[in-house]
UniProtKB/TrEMBL annotation:
Annotated compartments: Secreted, Cell wall
Protein name: Pectate lyase superfamily protein domain-containing protein
Single GO term (MF): polygalacturonase activity
Pfam family, one: Glyco_hydro_28
GO BP annotation list: carbohydrate metabolic process
Length: 473
């Protein structure tokens, strides 16, 4: 497709050639061919890679009435299209309609494209979600001992996967899951909306995710991940509906997202206690920018509490938080091991916050058996600059760990305006050290004033340099 990026005629010729190339194959391929021609009237979208082959869900028996199950249609479409992985890849178009489905698996060199009026509806029937083993870096802590329901859209050991659209919707219909979770009626961990494991070159963009049973987007053990132009919505009072959870991933970019959640808007993780220490896969090289977050009971960006594989080189900038419990928060505990280091935050605007700065060294939560009380986390090099917050209840609560202090905290140019019913003690600091500059209200003694501008890296991460191509659907 890059041969003629602009010209429609040239594009048409290439398409015809593509048709001749596949003419020799079986009936199935004709579905794909007809779509090649229709494509000429298509919408354009940006992606890490365009695909040579294209098909529509209805070609595989899909029915978009909101009642008929499309699990088989997705499965046979993607199985069929996986044959083109080594021949330019394929895209599956989900047309306007309501497409009820259970869990299905993605494939490599593949794009799932949702039309703006396409809604994928997650089945509310547990039997539509296969049970998969607990994650190696979590053991049986986060996950129920017998396993976890596979996510609605799942993929493992893949390369080059795009899930996109022109703002189509993935609706998890989470209500019965939230109810059963609260009533302790589930034998397995709730499904996420989208999870990719052990995968490389991922893009998730231009979609709306609503009402996930639990977390929305969970890349784990992945590299080179782009998440952008998403709207993620859940009621603010439902459990664990985190927006995006980069977990043991390298080189990730999350930008231009609007998230309203009952839990953290973004939760950066890397495994739990001894399980996470043993797997030893950090989340590193992560950039988050132009995020808008509303999360009255949780963080804009949480680092941890599962951080046992380490979290390093996180850059957060140009973020807005409204009616949110905290800003960029650190959560850890004795027994987690691992580290959180080289964290850089700049230009956050916050309104109606409980805490602006919050670090917790006593998060607790050790449900798994494998917990070593001698495994202390190393929290160091945490930098915030150019922060503005209004209507704040509590500026900073910074609790390190006794004999394992959080060090190298730097806060510069931060203007915090307090709420009418603000706490009397605005800075509560224990077992931490660092410096501050031009910060109001006046910081605690553990963070003395020093004329300093806290650092922010000048280089770009490799993922920030990726150029998207113009594709059509
Ligand atoms: C998806 O793949 C996983 C891992 O290979 C497997 O356990 C699961 O059953 C598959 N899901 C479906 C719907 O086939
Ligand atoms: C997926 O990749 C992981 C890590 O490389 C490997 O341990 C696992 O066996 C792979 N699984 C499959 C189904 O190929
Ligand atoms: C994706 O979202 C961006 C930002 O809103 C927009 O500019 C672009 O046109 C969208 N792409 C599609 C295919 O809708
Ligand atoms: C996408 O759809 C959601 C939900 O309808 C809406 O809130 C959002 O503004 C839309 N985004 C764009 C870029 O059109
Ligand atoms: C959960 O497990 C218990 C004990 O094995 C069983 O009685 C119950 O039916 C299971 N519940 C569901 C919803 O599968
Ligand atoms: C200020 O914050 C309080 C909660 O602390 C909230 O009830 C109130 O509406 C906020 N005021 C404004 C002007 O946003
Ligand atoms: C924590 O990490 C820093 C920076 O990598 C290192 O200098 C320091 O020795 C570590 N501290 C502990 C207690 O391991
Ligand atoms: C302080 O932070 C504010 C808000 O981000 C910014 O507008 C201002 O330019 C910063 N001041 C300096 C001296 O960098
Ligand atoms: C300050 O922090 C300490 C240690 O975490 C805690 O015990 C105490 O209750 C806090 N004080 C206030 C006034 O919040």
């Amino acid at each position: 497709m890059e041969l003629c990026p602009q010209s429609r005629q040239c594009y048409a010729v290439l398409k015809l050639l593509a048709i001749f190339v596949i003419l020799g194959s079986l009936i199935d391929s004709r579905l794909v061919e007809s779509r090649e021609v229709e494509n000429l009237q298509a919408t354009e979208y940006s992606a890490i890679n365009c695909r040579k082959h294209s098909a529509v869900l209805t070609d595989f028996g899909g029915v978009g009435d909101g009642k008929t199950s499309n699990t088989k249609a997705f499965k046979s479409a993607i199985e069929h299209l996986s044959k083109y992985a080594s021949d330019g890849g394929a895209q599956l178009i989900v047309p306007p309609g309501k497409w009820l489905t259970g869990s299905f698996n993605l494939t490599s060199h593949f794009t799932l494209y949702l039309h703006k009026d396409a809604v994928i509806l997650g089945s509310q029937d547990e039997a539509d979600y296969p049970v998969v083993p607990p994650l190696p870096s979590y053991g049986v802590g986060r996950d129920a001992p017998d396993g976890r329901f596979a996510s609605l859209i799942f993929g493992t050991n893949l390369t080059d996967v795009v899930v996109t659209g022109n703002n189509g919707t993935i609706n998890g219909q989470g209500r019965p899951w939230w109810t059963k979770f609260k009533a302790k009626q589930l034998n397995y961990t709730r499904p996420y909306l989208l999870e990719l494991m052990f995968s490389d070159q991922i893009q998730i963009s231009n979609l709306t995710f609503i009402d996930s049973p639990s977390w929305n987007i969970h890349p784990i053990y992945c590299s080179n991940v782009i998440v952008k132009w998403l709207t993620i919505l859940a009621p603010v009072d439902v459990p664990n509906t985190d927006g995006v959870n980069p977990d043991s991933c390298t080189n990730t970019l999350i930008e231009d997202c609007y998230i309203v959640s009952g839990d953290d808007c973004i939760a950066v993780k890397s495994g739990w206690d001894q399980y996470g220490i043993d797997v030893g896969m950090p989340t590193k090289q992560l950039a988050i920018r132009r995020l808008t977050c509303i999360s009255p009971d949780s963080a804009t960006v949480a680092l941890g509490s599962e951080m046992s594989g380490g979290i390093q080189d996180v850059r957060v900038e140009d973020v807005t938080a409204i009616d949110t419990q905290s800003g960029v928060r650190i959560k850890t505990a004795i027994g987690r091991g691992g580290y959180v280091k080289d964290i850089f935050v700049r230009n956050m605007r916050m309104k109606t916050m409980y805490y602006v700065f919050w670090m917790t060294g006593a998060y607790g939560s050790h449900p798994g058996g494998k917990f070593d009380p001698k495994a202390l986390p190393n929290i160091t090099g945490i930098n915030y600059k150019d922060m503005v917050a209004e209507n704040v209840t509590y500026t900073a609560r910074l609790d390190g760990i006794k004999n394992d202090p959080f060090t190298g905290i730097c806060i510069s140019n931060a203007t915090i305006t307090l709420a009418e019913k603000a706490k009397e003690l605005q800075w509560n600091c224990t077992d931490i050290s660092g410096v501050t500059s031009r910060v109001t209200p006046k910081p605690c003694a553990a963070l003395p004033e020093k004329e300093i501008d806290c650092p922010y890296p000048e280089d770009k991460l490799p993922i920030e340099k990726v150029q998207l191509k113009t594709c059509s659907a």
